[in-house]
Design a protein that fits this description.
single chain; alpha/beta; D-Maltodextrin-Binding Protein, domain 2; five-stranded mixed sheet; 14 helices; 18% strand
Length: 307
């Protein structure tokens, strides 16, 4: 049994992990997974780089950012991060204060982000541009992961933030507005992925493949309509703050490949291209258009073949 230290952002997309732990699939594949949720992308990247964590469930753009020294913090030497498996297309929702009815209404207001130049910040910048706003038209604050950002909007500290499930449904249920979504803007967007340091993965290939096989079992279970009711219960058991009346909607969005989990955890070539194009436009530095610089599916391919 190999211990695996996994760090993910808080959110409903972790449901396949909850399932794989609950059903014993990680153990059956020889890995003991300890899941930690991260307060921010910078914390996650620094602690993946220094070996505190082995695998990260993270925005695909974060892998690109830290490979190109464009992250929220500069890590030296440049970490050999790579994405070995997809996770979500994900729907990023621009949740706003109750008096904000459109993206344009954010002019002169403050918006909470995880970090200003990584992850999903560029999706926000595209939303602003399409609404005729410049980045200078709003005040942006680096607050951290989605629970912290949503709480800052709920408390009135900031006027808007980007959320994922379950926070989008929670916000809607409390009367907050959703004025734009990534799924409305992009035909495809590679939201989540699983990443590691290549040097660690190469030395622990069996553990990586065991993780992949287990996650895929959890994903298959989560996406099976026959497990819907149990999936709702599992989500409620593992995520504080979700009300029972909201949970079915959260799971419905999660199992929709347009707004949530990607079948077979495959990468979306068009979605990857969207991420790289957004970084080229808003990242303040040259991004490599070759996805192979950031993605290596050899561990996944071996895992599904049973190698």
């Amino acid at each position: 049994m190999t211990d695996l230290k996994l760090i993910c952002f808080p959110g409903a997309p972790n449901l396949p992990i909850f399932a794989a732990i609950e059903k014993g699939w990680f153990a059956a594949n020889g890995v003991n997974v300890k899941l930690t949720t991260t307060p921010s992308s910078a914390f996650q990247a620094e602690n993946l780089a220094n070996g505190t964590f082995d695998i990260a469930g993270t925005a695909f753009d974060n892998v690109v950012a830290y490979r190109e020294k464009q992250g929220a913090v500069v890590i030296e030497p440049v970490p050999d991060f790579f994405a070995f498996m997809g996770a979500t297309q994900i729907e990023l929702a621009l949740v706003t204060a109750k008096d904000v009815k459109s993206v344009a209404d954010l002019k002169g207001r403050s918006v909470a982000l995880d970090a200003l130049a990584t992850g999903f910040a560029f999706v926000l910048y595209e939303m602003l541009e399409r609404a005729g706003l410049k980045q200078a038209d709003i005040e942006m604050a680096a607050v951290g992961a989605t629970p912290l950002r949503w709480e800052s909007v709920r408390a009135g500290t900031h006027a808007a933030t980007l959320t994922i499930e379950p926070f989008t449904s929670i916000a809607r249920a409390q009367g907050f507005n959703v004025v734009e979504t990534s799924t409305n803007m992009f035909a495809a967007y590679q939201g989540g992925s699983f990443a590691a340091r290549y040097s660690w993965a190469a030395a622990n290939a069996d553990a990586v493949k065991g993780f992949i096989r287990s996650y895929l079992k959890g994903l298959e279970w989560t996406l099976d309509p026959a497990n819907k009711d149990e999936a709702v219960k599992l989500l409620l058991a593992n995520m504080d703050g979700i009300k029972p009346e909201v949970a079915p909607k959260v799971v419905a969005n999660l199992v929709n490949p347009r707004s949530g989990l990607t079948p077979k955890a495959a990468f979306l070539p068009d979605g990857v291209a969207t991420v790289l194009e957004l970084r080229r436009r808003y990242g303040g530095g040259k991004a490599n258009a070759d996805a192979a610089r950031y993605i290596d599916t050899s561990f996944y391919d071996d895992a599904v073949k049973g190698v």
